[in-house]
From TrEMBL, chains A, B:
Binding-site residues for Zn(2+) 1, renumbered to this chain: H75, H77, H80, H143, D165, H393
Lineage, top ranks: Bacteria, Bacillati, Bacillota, Bacilli, Bacillales
Start and end residues of each Metallo-beta-lactamase domain: 22-217
Protein name, as recorded: Ribonuclease J
Cofactor: Ca(2+); Zn(2+)
Species name: Kroppenstedtia eburnea
Amino acid sequence: MTKNNSRSKLSIFALGGLDEIGKNMYVIRYGDDIVVIDSGLMFPEDEMLGIDVVIPDITYLLENRDKVRGILLTHGHEDHIGGLPYILRELNVPVYGTKLTMGLVEHKLREAHLLNKTKRVIINNRSEVKLGSIQATFFKVNHSIPDAVGICLETPEGRVVHTGDFKFDMTPVNGQAADMHRMAEIGKKGVLCLLSDSTNAERPGFTGSERNVGEALETVFRKAKQRVIVATFASNIHRIQQVVDAADLHKRKLAVVGRSMVNVVNIGMELGYLRVPPDLLIDPDDINRLPAHKVTVMSTGSQGEPMSALTRMAHGSHRKIEILPGDTVVLAATPIPGNEKTVARTVDQLFRVGANVVYSASQHGVHVSGHGSQEDLKLMLNLIKPKYFIPIHGEHRMQRAHSQLAETVGVRPEHIFICENGDVVEFSGGKARYGAKVQTGNVLIDGLGVGDVGNIVLRDRKLLSQDGILVVVVTLSKNNGKILSGPDIISRGFVYVRESEKLLDEANRIVTQTMEKCASERVSEWASLKTSIRDALSRFLYDKTRRRPMILPIIMEV
Amino acid sequence: MTKNNSRSKLSIFALGGLDEIGKNMYVIRYGDDIVVIDSGLMFPEDEMLGIDVVIPDITYLLENRDKVRGILLTHGHEDHIGGLPYILRELNVPVYGTKLTMGLVEHKLREAHLLNKTKRVIINNRSEVKLGSIQATFFKVNHSIPDAVGICLETPEGRVVHTGDFKFDMTPVNGQAADMHRMAEIGKKGVLCLLSDSTNAERPGFTGSERNVGEALETVFRKAKQRVIVATFASNIHRIQQVVDAADLHKRKLAVVGRSMVNVVNIGMELGYLRVPPDLLIDPDDINRLPAHKVTVMSTGSQGEPMSALTRMAHGSHRKIEILPGDTVVLAATPIPGNEKTVARTVDQLFRVGANVVYSASQHGVHVSGHGSQEDLKLMLNLIKPKYFIPIHGEHRMQRAHSQLAETVGVRPEHIFICENGDVVEFSGGKARYGAKVQTGNVLIDGLGVGDVGNIVLRDRKLLSQDGILVVVVTLSKNNGKILSGPDIISRGFVYVRESEKLLDEANRIVTQTMEKCASERVSEWASLKTSIRDALSRFLYDKTRRRPMILPIIMEV
């Protein structure tokens, strides 16, 4: 009985998604039942040199693998589903998501050879999923991808609501507004704790309707004299639909370029989320057979990604399409923080090749966010009326801003928990408090390696990137310790060798002197000898150049 | 006569500042007289790994050193004066600037041991400077540093106006508005060509007055219960003045921290640009002796620079001051493009240590730009009424936007020249056309090295930063080519060695096999042997890890 009692509390925490944008993974545990919400990835920060993607550390889940009842997905964005191929390989549990979300997941799992090994369940807003003592239902929300849901979890300790990523779009493109009636119903029944999206908590007002973008696009199409090229996020099927509609209205054909865009358009059409008139789509190869005013191109690259279709088109390095003077290019997106410069460079390059460029700074309305602003967030809080509140999905200052909004609509300050990943909020007898922290962290993925790059490797990459490396090689005699060959100094990323011969000659002399000195002092241990060389050379180079290249002494013995 | 004729044209071009933000350097040449406007530096782009600063390539000036009559400075920002210590070392010419600008320049030249070698002339809005056949006068403009001027050059071919960086501030903090009367006068006399600041050409409306920031600061001071810490650009003396005034009004003492901030405050007070009541300033060491509500701190770090005073205070690593719960911290700045993430991290950290953080997203009005928006730019164009127009100081899309503004106020499209650095616009007989391009480029400064780091070094640093390096060393016998020692493989920045022993063992085997194969095929040239090792190892590692570390084979012979 005691044992059961100690277990029967409700714990809520994140393995990813708090104090960061990306790798969302939230855990709700009651007794021996664990439910996971989302399994995202994060794109590397600037200082994570050479890293491809980052996923959450799931040690906690692996240590409790027999208790994990399933993974519920809120929607199909990479920061919510991108970690699945890595995580399911280690933790084979059922995955639940709406039709479009599962369509995107299946594509990923097929590539990772995990499709047949994974139990997959498609849910909708009428589904009830039993996960041990926890029961999940789902309600529609609006977001920049269709088929996004919020999740209501009934637990013996009380009701927990997770909004997923959301906004309230009063005039949604597909006619499916966020289900405020269901939210009101849930709120009326009483909610113990709300977890809600904080991305735009710093932004005043309501977030605009996706339909506004359609109107802005219509204006662009109407004015365009030659080809129209629209770049946007591949997953924003609502926006893709509006480009399709505008092309159709203006009697233009549409070519789709960029691997992820082609993929989403195919899945969207196959599953009925994208309505494309017959004969509208053309192959990119056929563009040049049509007059310019009959052509629309839809492309990836709205973030100025160097390898994207749009960037390659702008630089004339795309295999099939080149931007021509007079083309109208629309970047239907705003830069994600950190991408401002690459986007600006792409806009500059497009102007340079003669395009008429429409971008967020030049024309209002070609993008709206998928995340609710302050008024959306207050509306959610007022509908759900939670006793406790945990702002999720955002960096610290966004969680702060969201917590202030919650206070203004009446949540008691002491009932708000601003958490980091791994902070556990425990509920018992209707009361909440912090529990013991669980292990969290970034698992770095570089090529095929999952977790084999850590701080030491990153520190070395950082060092190498700043001032390069000097390798010092010398061969000694096993018999008498005399130098048989070298010292040879090879540098990479340090200086132009041709212009710095004198410097490197002097460096060579320093190494020889150091070795002679060590020999006369009878320093025979290689480690000390290497340290002496490294120190002497480092001092010399810093003095001459104010640089600190990595120095790698290698001593061979024959 | 013919020779003279061929010379007596007017040429205008930039050695830096076009299609970029930074390293401004414009050249006006008439016959044998060359006038340079500004000598700035640029902070390195992300891909310039390890580089400290970038200055313009001044080959053109060095090749024409006997013709350079002087360098005129518009104002004291780094992107306009920061290149001087490097450039004056190679080109000893007189430098002209206003009192504050020259105060800041002197500080730089003193550090570079160039102060006594350089002829320095202080100018004001009544100065007339004769530079060979070119005569310069100056007119006040408003900018985010006091004592900024535009320049009017009278040449035998016509009048050329360079705005410098500017906006029109109708209620300037120091009471000195941009001299519209002088601009009107110049415009009335007739201007051949205008060069005008394009930084904010994408931004609608007028740029706000610096005085608005003072009002916003006043509100912050009024509400603050404990210490107030304001971070802003060190050079913005107007803003510093307003912090001084607010501190004085609210009977708080003021401590200044951050090397560049202390420097500017000293120069500003010394030269009379900053009015500080006696006893207002206190030493940072004395802060803790005063009650919290009596303290203001003014600091660098508004861009979240990792080594700045504010960042160190936020992380508890500043020697003298630590942010305490309840402190109000104002970031009176918006992030410069590229700094969004570091600023956001600083705000997050300040919240984490319990500060009440006021930043651009949380409160409107704590920053205004120093550059004119679209209406300011049109006002300038309308006052100066140039025949020809060259949009300067901005990236390509800003130059484009500025050119569109010029068209709307009546400049003929064929009279607008959107140039890159090195594009020469030649004026002769009142007509303009493109001339032969001049050499331009980025000179990269890394430590003490000026220009000894170029594309090959940067490419190596980039490679090293992505997947690290593997050094393969082997010692061969001079006599029979047999392996005497090795192959040894040492890696840095590639994988955790401990977790990848098997991989590195296999790599070792691959090298041995390759060398044996080469030996059996009688490959004796080291270059081919090295290439074979590099290829085999690269293929193996890519196959196993999908990474491409730099591979450096080193063969020693004894």
